[in-house]
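Q: What would this chain look like folded?
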Amino acid sequence: MHFDYGYMEEGQLGKPYNMGLLKRLIPYARPYKKILFLALILTLVITLFDLSIPYLPKIAIDRYILSFWYPVNHRRLSAGLAEEFREKYGHIVKMTKRAGLGFLSSSKLKQIDPVDLRQYQEQEIISRERFYRISVKKSDRHRLVINKKAIQGEGPYLYIPVKALKNTSYDTLIKLRHRDLNGVLLIGVFLLFLIGGSFFLNYWEYYLLEKSGQNMMQDIRMELFDRIQGQSIRFFDRNPVGRLVTRTTNDIENLNEMFKSVLITVFKDIFLLSGIIVVLLHLNWRLALISFILLPFVFGFTLFFSRQAREVFREIRKNIAAINAFLQERISGIRIIQLFVQEKMQLGRLKDLNEKNYRASMRQIKIFAVFMPSMEVFSSVAIGLLLWYGGGKVISEQLTLGALVAFIGYIQMFFKPIRDISEKYNIMQSAMASMERIFGLMDQKEIIQEPEIPKRPVKAEGHLQLKNVSFAYEKAFPVLTDVSFEIKPGQVVALVGITGSGKTTIIHLIERFYEFETGNILLDGLDIREWRIEELRSQIGLVMQDVFIFAGSIAENISLGDKKIPKEVLEEVSRQANAYQFIKRLSGGFDHEVKEGGVTLSGGQKQLLALSRALAYNPTLLILDEATSSVDPETERLIQDSILTLSRRQTTLIVAHRPSTIQQADRILVMHHGHIVEQGTHKELMTLGNIYFRLNQLREGNL
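A: My prediction, written as structure tokens:
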């Protein structure tokens, strides 16, 4: 025998994700658009802060730490060349008091065309000798030991050869370069401000994303659970509980991870990558193009591994759902497993499921074990290219050292989002697999349709009629064929028959758990398809053979948590169901806490609680489906007494096998292979000596 615990159909494994699924999140995000917009603004500001951090060391190095100036000798320029030089580069040269002599800063040097720069340096128009520019008050200049070697610039500035400061004392050097030191200090303080501000903004960004994400997931979980509750019983026949639990827990949590870790942060990555590209092109477009050589390989490599990972993530989600469904079913049926000593066999089946999940997870690990180090290799190769090409440019003074340092910082930052894509893609793939299942489940509409214009009966009294009702769970195997009968208000009618004759199916149709193909079922003169489902079911009290008891108090199990039902009503219905005496004997009475499944209660006590639960909503039609089949004679007597009392004001339909339960009924309907073959009182049917007679004889052991 094969049990299907699958998460998705095998045919889906090779299909790409439908990215239109992301649009399904928009309605859930709309109520929190203000929070999301604020988070997006914070993301932009954080990105600007992050982009500024590598640029500040560049400013500190070029403008203050290695702030060199190069002499420009205009006297060596010919008339034509002088005119050309002034037109192209005159605006970047600072003139001095000496005629024909100017200075060009190292940061401005890169603005000169490399061909022109080589020509000017060969002709000694631009000297290779390096100078510092310092700001000194006129009254303090006579104190400088190197005053004779200084060249007076515009205003308070002096240009001093770097060689002249080699033997200068530390204190003197500090005084001379106090402007540069103050600049470095200012940049350092500003850098700390950016780091602190980034930390602060990151906190609020994370908080806002987490808050909106949790709210969205709460909304999705509530809607999903509401959709699940609204499905027909046929839907639950095909979907294991473990699978549905996986949808509402693990899958939605995966969706939350994608939302807070991917959907918003992807905007940050786009802003960051775009900003880095702009800054690199601004610093040096040639070096930027060298840096971008590896990008096609990176994106191609990422695309290849994304396709490999997609199928693995789908398979992992399928396996997790299978394990959850298996565990839920086995734990629920642990008594049967232990009774038939099947622990080893069930452990073996779990081992097979676990092995499939293990192999899929190992394939995922192998994919990312190659992908993540590959991103590191690409990053290292990019930095190596920068050092090779950019270092040559620094040596040839076509690029400043600060610019090269900034380039390396930006390239490392550039590859960080691409490296992070491994983790984000991991989350994305897992979430997309979950999203397919969540919205696929939401799109299933195996629901009992509400009437377009619901009607209400003139008088609610429990008058039930079935007219030529036919039904089949599977079309080729009919369960009911042309079933017709009537239960008048206040009557007690019993329904009997061998197992599989269709008794429980009739109850399911009356409750509208399933839709019937042909015929009509009327309650109080109205077809049940014209009732609002909620109102219809509130008129019917159903007590089933297998009673489900929730973890909670006795009162909560009777009222099902409905706070509109006062305690007085709970006490009254428990008396009507003959459950009051045993409830009062429990510690805490109605507040007594019951464990899951009601393991601390006897089968009879559960049945009495179920009867109390059915009466708490004051139904006009009470249905007992084998309610006395598994109880002791004393409890059966209590239930029978309750039925006799209730029949005075409620219509009652009893499905039972025991003659003692049904022989007091006003009428007994005998079912056989989906038909009603006999009906009458107990005495009348026994006199006929047909099916009902033989059923009783079988129960009494006379046949």
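Residues 1-15 have pLDDT under 50 and may be disordered.
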